[in-house]
Amino acid sequence: MNDDLKILVAEAEKARADETCALRILASMDLTSLGEDDTDEKIRALCARAVTPKGHVAAVCVYDKFVPLALRELAGTGVRVATVCNFPHGLPDAVKAVAEARAQVAAGVQEVDVVLPYKRYKAGHRDQAIALLHQVREVCGETVLLKVILETSQLQSPKIIGEASRDAIEAGADFIKTSTGKVPGGATLEAAAVMLSAIREMEPKVKRPLGFKPSGGLKTADQAAGHLFLADRILGQGWATPQTLRFGASSLLDDVKKHLGL
What we know:
This protein is α/β, with parallel strands linked by helices. It has helices at residues 3-12, 19-27, 40-49, 67-74, 94-106, 118-122, 126-140, 152-155, 158-170, 189-206, 221-235, 252-259; strands at residues 29-33, 51-52, 55-56, 59-62, 80-85, 111-115, 145-149, 175-177, 211-213, 247-249.
């Protein structure tokens, strides 16, 4: 990471959320429940939390078996329904990942968050890892948003994170995402700066809108404000909207509501 990005990260660490920032975070949130103990009742409660007196979140992200339920609960609210694919381990089995994605699309999901086979990618088997993304992209078609989870804490190196970001975008990712939230380490400002810089580089090349999703360990509005600060500084004021920036979190909403007096 170059010196300019290091300076931006240091500034982002000082960011604090005010009401305007909290409203932006709310509108860009992927309210998430991916627990092994999830039930229909828990997902109904999650969907109810997605709409507040100050606005609604961008999407609700649940395991695929709950997609039909979430679609029914959120009908007419403007909240999208997302699920996860090849999750959480990022296995290199493309046949299984494609079958999983195909079933998710058939169930009506609007967004798919697929895990890059990050262990294979880091070990140098990049063609195999990226081929899986290409195949899932094909299944998603042009209507289902594809977010690629890089698992940045496991890639570790800013150089590898940058390379994985660019490769995922070339493979058809609409968004690049930091983490599954299922391994130690999650969204960091350092990884965010690298990934946002990759988006700035790649958007003119691929000629389509690209997005960024920090996830894993985001619990406070102040933490999210740091990522907003980086997005505004690296990609310009006005770039970060619910169409280009998402916050993947389960508990972040509670702190955002405190900032909004809810």
